[in-house]
Design a protein that fits this description.
Blueprint (H helix, E strand, L loop, with lengths): L2 H31 L7 H33 L15 H6 L7 H27 L1
Helix pairs in contact: 1-2
């Protein structure tokens, strides 16, 4: 990958990381400020659960960003983790944390769909037994 493209993607990843951290901090402040009223306890509990899920997802995303930044430092960024081919620049611009080329990602998604269909069939078969 060209150096200028690598620097551009690194800048994008750092920008995304800053945004995600700011979003997490904003959500944490909201979470900390809420004081539950006995009438609104269930609503407050639901909000806390959603907030917790939001923070968990953001933490996973931050890990992907950090992994991508580490790959840049180790000169392995833009290489498919599965087949070793170069990941297309347009894919990286669309999803800077991508670790699979488009072909391997499509294969992964196809296998996931098959697994979901199998589990659905097995589940319904077991229920009928």
């Amino acid at each position: 990958m060209e150096k200028r493209n690598l620097l551009k993607l690194k800048k994008i990843l750092i920008g995304i990381k800053k945004e995600v951290i700011a979003q997490k901090q904003d959500n944490s402040l909201i979470y900390a400020e809420k004081l539950p009223d006995t009438i609104d306890q269930s609503v407050d509990d639901s909000e806390k659960l959603l907030n917790s899920k939001f923070i968990t997802r953001k933490n996973l995303y931050l890990k992907k960003i950090d992994d991508a930044l580490n790959k840049i430092e180790n000169d392995t960024y833009g290489v498919c983790d599965n087949c070793g081919d170069e990941i297309d620049l347009q894919r990286l611009l669309a999803r800077p944390t991508a670790s699979l080329c488009i072909f391997c990602k499509q294969e992964q998604e196809r296998e996931e769909r098959i697994d979901q269909q199998k589990s659905g069939f097995l589940k319904s078969w077991e229920e009928n037994e």
